[in-house]
Write a structure and sequence with these properties.
With about 400 residues, the protein is an alpha/beta fold. It is built from 17 helices and eleven strands. β6, α10 and β7 (about 250) form a beta-alpha-beta unit. It binds magnesium ion.
């Protein structure tokens, strides 16, 4: 038997130092180079741009942009010279170089930022795969294991039979929150197709739609109501007031997003929580919205606003105002999972939109992992990167006619 003294003597200081260093030596991160960037276009709920960034170790990262990405393919192509040969793990450097290179080309908002969002998300997926970590870990780690969803019901008319069936489906699938739209350009009560001042009959129709939906789901399910940024200020104020008894989760974009003072006037006039953000871009777009306390809740679209780091920065800005973060979401499971990794890492995350109720077959088959929703939540996977891989045979059913499908590009 070895006594303690002999045991201690068998360890030299040098050997001990080597052992400690071996256990704590900084991990040598992979040295990667971007070799190619490819795109595909999909049309499901609107238009989605899929981007893959390939590296010289054979890995690729996959990202998705939406809504404002029409025209995104030539934009991504125009960034190829900046991207090929770059280290893909320096995500912020790549993002900021492309963003600032475009300040005279519309890089403040719209297509430019939405296409850049798809690219940025692809870089995060690639980084996670290269480092062997899920994306949430690279974003600071998770504060929750699953992300709550609300189901956008896509109801045409909350008073018809289809609406009843949708509410039954939403309840059966254990969602805790849902949303309806109350704007209607062809409301027969309207006097004018261009003017967006709602009259009494149109406001009564809106109230009836919300009342019927509340009846169907009860007071304890969260209910969002969207006006799609169509109406004028007086209508926004009147509707927000009329809907107060229904205790909404929020009233969304009662007026267009551009005039922050108008949004603030509505917010200050009502107890109904006001939400905006899906048509606002980058941290710069959110600065004034938050400084003026123009909304109660923000809803950036991560696949459009600038990607995961911009989303994270916006969420943290909102956190300093005690404002919850409830991202807009209309993408495939690839984009939704990227939002879920971010939402898992955000303390003030509230609820994430899911909008594929009318494309269930495609939703369940779009990625190889199948349906990523469980009982109204997305559980966060522990796989490296985003943790989902597109099932191309299924996804290609929604390919835009005559659009590219991840074909290799010619050498830059
Ligand atoms: Mg909306």
């Amino acid at each position: 038997m070895i006594d303690r003294r002999t045991l201690l003597k068998s360890f030299s200081v040098a050997a001990l130092t080597r052992a400690v260093q071996a256990a704590t030596t900084p991990y040598n991160r992979p040295k990667l180079k971007i070799t190619d960037v490819r795109t595909a276009e999909v049309r499901v709920h609107g238009y989605q741009l899929h981007v893959r960034v390939y590296a010289d170790d054979g890995l690729f990262g996959h990202g998705e942009g939406t809504d404002s990405v029409q025209g995104g393919v030539p934009l991504i192509d125009s960034w190829r010279r900046t991207l090929i040969g770059r280290d893909p793990l320096n995500i912020e450097a790549i993002f900021e170089q492309i963003r600032t290179a475009g300040v005279f080309s519309g890089a403040q908002a719209g297509q430019y930022v939405a296409a850049l969002s798809a690219l940025e998300i692809a870089l995060w997926d690639l980084a996670g795969k290269a480092l062997g970590l899920p994306v949430y870990q690279l974003l600071g780690g998770k504060v929750r294991d699953r992300v709550r969803l609300y189901c956008d019901s896509d109801m045409r008319n909350p008073l018809d039979d289809e609406a009843g069936k949708k509410i039954a489906w939403i309840k059966d699938n254990q969602f805790t929150a849902m949303k309806i739209d109350i704007d209607q350009f062809n409301d027969p009560n309207r006097f004018d197709r261009m003017n967006w001042t709602a009259n009494n009959a149109e406001i009564d129709r809106m109230v009836k739609w919300v009342a019927r939906t509340r009846d169907g789901i009860g007071m304890n399910m969260d209910l969002g109501v969207d006006m799609h940024a169509r109406y004028d200020a007086i209508t926004g104020k009147r509707v927000a007031k009329e809907l107060e008894p229904f205790r909404l989760m929020w009233l969304e974009e009662p007026v267009p997003a551009e005039n922050i003072d108008a949004m603030r006037d509505i917010k200050q006039s009502t107890h109904t929580p006001i939400c905006s953000g899906e048509n606002i871009f980058l941290t710069y777009g959110y600065r004034e919205l938050l400084e003026k306390r123009a909304v109660d809740i923000i809803m950036p679209d991560i696949q459009k606003v600038g990607g995961l780091l911009q989303g994270r920065a916006i969420a943290e800005m909102a956190h300093t105002y005690y404002i919850p973060f409830a991202p807009h979401g209309v993408t495939s499971p690839v984009g939704m999972m990227s939002s879920a990794h971010l939402c898992a890492s955000i303390p003030n995350f509230y609820v994430l939109e899911w909008h594929w109720i009318d494309s269930l077959d495609l939703w369940r088959n779009f990625v190889k992992e199948g349906d990523i929703i469980e009982k109204g939540y997305i559980p966060i996977p522990e796989r490296p990167g985003l943790g989902v891989e597109m099932n191309e045979a299924a996804a290609r059913k929604a390919q835009g006619p005559g659009t590219p499908w991840f074909e290799p590009r010619r050498a830059a």
